[in-house]
Design a protein that fits this description.
- This protein is α/β, with parallel strands linked by helices.
- The chain has one domain: Glycerol-3-phosphate (1)-acyltransferase, CATH 3.40.1130.10.
- Helix content is about 50%, strand content about 15%.
- The chain has nine helices and seven strands.
- Helix 1 packs antiparallel against helix 2, helix 2 crosses helix 3 and helix 6 packs parallel to helix 7.
- The chain is globular.
Length: about 240
């Protein structure tokens, strides 16, 4: 079974994803320059993520999808245990920007397309980089584009949620937008940390009720962070039982 999954990833899913980057990005980027809109580029990227996951044998189930669109702009925060979560979330969420590692922004073609789509690069080791990323995220939110971020800061191989970083909650308060907790279930079984191929199976994405930031100031970010973390941990604990 593992051998079949490995070859399915290496011979179908990964080559398809690479072909999308090499062939479609050079086609859609000039359209973005001409039209001044990333709509077509964004649509292409979402379809590419969805089809790549399907070729790898991943089925996506979404719970309470209406909660993702209850507000025109928000900060989505999700748990992070596997590399399949980011493309799966990108495929099902409304228009978003993502805060990503600086190294991803340096990938030829793909990095440029992501930056063109409003994605924000951050160097985890640089405090100034994190500050600039936070400021850019607030401007993005104020422009009406939602942000997706993994508040643990890194993939969590197992166990309870790692401590959250306050940045996502600070940006939500500064921009005056709600936080939508998202829990992804089943990702660890599909692509555990340290593996290079994807196993077929079901991935469940659950949207929880938005948490308002109305009336909050920066001093409340830890309280907001704790409330969101509680919601997410309770959902993950329930899933285990």
């Amino acid at each position: 079974m593992h051998s079949f999954s490995m070859w399915r990833s290496y011979l179908l899913a990964y080559p398809f994803a690479a072909a999308c980057v090499v062939v479609l990005v050079p086609l859609f980027v000039p359209m973005t320059w001409i039209t001044g809109s990333v709509r077509l580029l964004y649509w292409m990227a979402r379809q590419a993520c969805l089809l790549t996951l399907r070729l790898a044998g991943i089925r996506i189930r979404v719970l309470n999808p209406e909660r993702a669109t209850m507000h025109p702009c928000c900060v989505f925060v999700a748990n992070h245990v596997s590399n399949v979560e980011a493309p799966a979330l990108f495929a099902v969420l409304p228009r978003i920007a993502v805060i990503m590692k600086e190294s991803l922004g340096r990938i030829p073609l793909l990095g440029y397309a992501m930056r063109l789509g409003g994605f924000i690069c951050v160097d985890r080791k640089g405090k100034d980089s994190r500050k600039r990323a936070l400021e850019a995220a607030v401007r993005t939110l104020q422009a009406g584009i939602s942000i997706l971020i993994f508040p643990e800061g890194t993939r969590n191989p197992s166990g309870p949620l790692l401590p959250f970083r306050p940045g996502p909650f600070q940006m939500a308060i500064d921009a005056g937008v709600p936080v939508v907790p998202v829990t992804v279930h089943g990702a660890a079984a599909l692509m555990p940390k340290g593996t290079t191929y994807v196993r077929p199976g079901l991935l469940t994405i659950a949207f929880h009720l938005p948490v308002t930031t109305e009336g909050l100031d920066p001093d409340h970010r830890i309280q907001l962070m704790g409330r969101v973390r509680e919601t997410m941990q309770a959902a993950l604990d329930f899933d285990e039982h």
